[in-house]
Design a protein that fits this description.
The chain is an alpha/beta fold. It is built from 8 helices and 7 strands; from the N terminus they run βαβαβαβαβαβαααβ. The chain has helices at residues 18-29, 41-53, 69-83, 105-133, 153-171, 189-195, 199-209, 218-228, and strands spanning 9-13, 33-38, 60-63, 88-91, 136-141, 176-183, 240-243. Strands 3-2-1-4-5-6-7 form a 7-stranded parallel β-sheet, with helices on both faces. Helix 1 crosses helix 8 and helix 3 (69-83) packs parallel to helix 4 (105-133). The longest helix has 29 residues, at 105-133.
Length: 252
């Protein structure tokens, strides 16, 4: 199926591994011109090499810590300068932040900066060009709203959902859609090394929580993301779409 996004431009944050890298690969296969940002330049270079070896155009690489407002603004500016106006923004930067009941303010501030403010600031930086052309797609990769323990990323993701819903209403008549994808357990660096580091832990979690019976792949998120990035999704906005193998139905 032709998604009609060949030649469009996209900025993908958190693109070095996992879901972000999977979405970058999917967009590249559709002929989208890419700017990729993340903290780890070595991982970005490896992804760029893979895309080039696969016959896709080499992306623009923008190493940045998106929890830092100045670095974030520079990444958005550099992407627009190099590619022209950005049509598609995919906010993947984020991360789990397990906490106790007495964690310091800096833990909360970092979690909010990375999991909420980064998406908000990148969107605000790129929206003027989207509005001027009456077309744009903002796709936020968020997280479960059914926590099993305290985590500073959870309220940040909740803020992301409600901010995106409000923004989608503001922009609905401007040809710009705003949506969130809420992944379940996807095979990523964070899931496989931090959340469920052993095969036994994975099997136990799957048995208790995931009706479909396995962890997802980054491509499972990417397939939805490229649909939301396309003109085919013009009537989808303000949505929070779970992709989790049914996990949300069994959360406790």
């Amino acid at each position: 199926m032709d998604l009609d996004i060949r030649g469009r431009t996209a900025l993908v944050s958190g693109a070095s591994t996992g879901i972000g890298a999977g979405i970058a690969r999917a967009l590249a296969r559709e002929g989208v011109r890419l700017a990729l940002t993340a903290r780890r330049m070595d991982k970005l270079k490896e992804l760029a090499r893979q895309l080039k070896d696969g016959g896709q155009a080499e992306p623009l690489l923008l190493p940045a810590d998106l929890a830092d407002k100045e670095e974030l603004e520079k990444a958005a500016e550099d992407a627009s300068r190099a590619l022209g106006p950005v049509d598609i923004l995919v906010n993947c930067a984020g991360g789990s932040r397990p906490i106790g009941t007495d964690d310091a303010e800096d833990v909360w501030n970092e979690a909010l900066a990375l999991n909420f403010h980064a998406a908000r600031r990148l969107s605000q930086a790129l929206l003027p060009d989207m509005k001027s052309r009456s077309w744009g797609r903002i796709i936020n990769i968020s997280g479960s709203m059914e926590p099993r323990a305290s985590n500073a990323a959870t309220p940040a993701k909740a803020a992301l959902h409600l901010w995106a819903k409000g923004l989608s209403c503001d922009l609905a008549r401007s040809g710009i859609t705003v949506n969130c994808i809420a992944p379940g357990r996807i095979k990523s660096e964070q899931t496989m090394t931090r959340l469920h580091p052993t095969e036994a832990a994975r099997d136990a979690f799957i048995k208790a929580n995931i009706p479909i019976g396995y962890f997802g792949e980054p491509e499972d998120i990417a397939n939805m993301a490229i649909y939301l990035a396309s003109p085919l999704s013009r009537y989808v906005t303000g949505a929070v779409i779970p992709i989790d193998g049914g996990m949300h139905y069994f959360a406790h």
